[in-house]
Specification:
Blueprint lengths: L2 H27 L8 H4 L11 H13 L2 H9 L4 H28 L6 H8 L2 H30 L10 H27 L3 H21 L6 H17 L6 H26 L12 E2 L2 E2 H9 L6 H9 L11 H26 L9 H14 L5 H35 L9 H6 L1 H16 L3 H29 L8 H25 L7 H31 L8
Helix pairs in contact: 1-5, 1-14, 3-11, 3-14, 3-16, 4-12, 4-14, 4-15, 5-13, 5-14, 5-19, 6-7, 6-19, 7-10, 7-16, 7-18, 7-19, 7-21, 8-9, 8-11, 8-16, 9-11, 10-16, 10-18, 11-14, 11-15, 11-16, 12-19, 12-20, 13-16, 13-19, 14-15, 15-16, 16-18, 19-20, 19-21, 20-21
Length: 555
């Protein structure tokens, strides 16, 4: 199989889906550029802040991409490139992009409310509480997995104690990105340069940070970086979005888009041969294609986390409804394109067995080999790709820490008259962030590989719940939501099957010397809670969905 042919087929299908399917959704749902968005109407300078389209696209894409579209397809490649490619394309178009777009639309038409508050309005208060609890627990899982990935990527030492300059350069550049983001925010909102000048400044800052990072790599061990990462995401969670979240994601989006563009160009020139078999079997390494393939590819096809970004932060920054298709639908298709590149990378490196190393290392090695055909140093390419992968994960942490904090606040807070005593103490943003990050830190100590399967299953289950919630919203407001039904049912079946397998596996491990309470015990508690919460929320939602005979609300 030709890597170029695989990339071309995916690219054409994604472009067609954006213009045809995405355009159709805009028409039938009634996207209206003349409507005032919540970001404009409720501008508070903290969470509700109108952002330029390019800045908001950067925020959405950098936040949703994370490490998932790279890790997932590479791990799932054990089943062969055929089923992975088919699921990436079908999942991205008909599951992931529709979920992201519909979640953004429903939130914008609900005054920028998160999905939990939308559920309260259209399904009921009990559903809201259970959904918010599910979201909060899920955010803790994401924080744990991605913080461990970032700290590992920043680790400036090899296993033998020698310096790892690639990781050190990545760490320096990432720290400089954060400082540059604050400077860029001041320029963007105080000086207010034009669109082209804004992009020139952003690219100049990006190259300056990369150049300094390559010249002055920082060498710290993993644990100090883990502490620093949690300090950073605490600050990012409570700071106004305009001063750090928006500009940092915007700056990172250039790096991420450059990485995707360079990798695609490398594939076009190198045209690598995919030596990975099309299909290796239904059961591989004791794992079955169903449901493991779907929850392993995860963000490369559909991710419930995206619905939290769309409804939790992006909807509060959207300045014009006409930008919804690009930001909500287009960013997911671009993530699917990245997942295809990751699949090509692992497929080209396959040599009678899966290549060695973690998925980010496999991805970096594959893309560096492609770029080598252009005369670009593989060492420099590997460093830049590693930097980009860490940027994906770190920008997701920015957003998920804020979303986790908002979910806990919404879960605890009541009306102003009732929000006293312990509720007032725990629902302020500083305490809510501290509680969320503390639990995330404890789970991170077990390493991301130990919680990836649980993260993947709960992530997809959240996607199913988001689709159910939006389906109720569409029916209650008299819109066509039939395209949500098949993805909704499919994701419920897939994810509940995967979570059931995780619970059985953890229970079987209990009582053995391999069972570690702070790792396996916490995972078991999370798996049982998430499954129970999802079943109750889904049951309530289906009951309401079946009882709605005609529209009873407009938005």
């Amino acid at each position: 199989m030709s890597g170029l042919l695989m990339l071309a087929v995916a690219g054409v299908l994604f472009l067609a889906a954006y213009f045809l399917y995405g355009g159709w959704l805009c028409r039938i749902w009634g996207v209206d550029p003349k409507r005032v968005t919540p970001a404009v109407e409720c501008n508070d300078g903290v969470d509700y802040v109108p952002a330029p389209r390019s800045v908001l696209f950067g925020h959405q894409f950098a936040s949703i991409a994370g490490a998932g579209p790279i890790n997932g397809p590479i791990i799932a490649a054990m089943f062969g490139w055929g089923p992975v490619l088919v699921w990436i394309i079908i999942g991205s178009i008909f599951f992931g992009a529709v979920q992201d777009f519909s979640s953004l639309f429903a939130s914008v038409r609900s005054k920028g409310k998160g999905l939990g508050l939308i559920i309260e309005e259209y399904i009921g208060g009990a559903g809201k509480v259970l959904f918010l609890l599910f979201c909060w627990l899920f955010c803790i899982l994401v924080i744990a997995a991605f913080s461990d990935i970032v700290a590992s990527t920043f680790n400036g030492f090899n296993a033998d104690g020698t310096f790892n300059d690639a990781n050190g350069a990545t760490a320096t550049t990432s720290v400089l990105f954060i400082a540059s983001a604050v400077l860029f925010a001041m320029i963007l909102y105080r000086v207010k340069p034009g669109g082209i000048l804004t992009q020139i400044i952003a690219i100049a800052l990006l190259f300056l940070c990369i150049g300094l990072g390559l010249m002055f790599p920082m060498h710290l061990h993993k644990m100090p970086w883990l502490y620093l990462v949690f300090i950073y995401i605490y600050i990012a969670s409570v700071a106004p979005v305009w001063i750090l979240l928006q500009p940092r994601d915007y700056l990172n989006s250039f790096l991420l888009l450059f990485m995707i563009g360079a990798a695609a160009l490398g594939i076009i020139v190198a045209n690598p041969t995919i030596t990975l078999p099309v299909y290796t079997g239904f059961t591989v390494n004791g794992m079955s294609l169903f449901p493991i393939l779907f929850v392993t590819v995860a963000c490369g096809a559909v991710s419930g986390f995206h619905s939290l970004v769309s409804s939790g932060t992006t909807s509060k920054q959207l300045a014009d409804e006409r930008d919804m298709r690009l930001i909500g639908f287009g960013s997911m298709l671009l993530e699917g394109f990245l997942a295809v590149i990751a699949l090509i990378a692992v497929g080209a490196l396959y040599n009678g067995g899966m290549p060695k190393g973690t998925p980010p290392i496999i991805f970096a090695n594959g893309v560096a080999a492609f770029l080598g055909t252009l005369g670009i140093s593989e060492n420099a390419s590997r460093t830049l790709i590693t930097l980009a992968v860490s940027a994906f994960a770190l920008t997701s942490l920015d957003s998920v820490a804020r979303i986790g904090r908002l979910s806990l606040q919404e879960l605890i807070r009541r009306t102003d008259a009732e929000n006293t005593g312990w509720r007032a103490a725990l629902s302020n943003k500083y305490a809510a962030t501290f509680i969320t990050l503390t639990l995330g830190y404890l789970l991170s100590l077990g390493g991301y590989m130990n919680i990836w399967a649980l993260f993947g299953a709960s992530n997809q289950l959240l996607g199913a719940l988001a689709l159910i919630a939006v389906c109720v919203f569409m029916k209650r407001t008299g819109r066509n939501g039939k395209m949500l039904v098949i993805p909704m049912i499919a994701m419920l079946v897939i994810t509940l099957s995967a979570l059931g397998q995780s619970i059985i596996g953890l229970l079987g491990k209990a009582g053995t010397p391999d069972f570690v309470m702070m790792r396996d015990g916490l995972q078991l508690v999370f798996a049982v809670l998430l499954t129970a919460l999802a079943l109750v929320v889904a049951g309530q939602s289906f009951r309401v969905l079946g009882s709605v005979k005609r529209p009873d609300h407009t938005a």
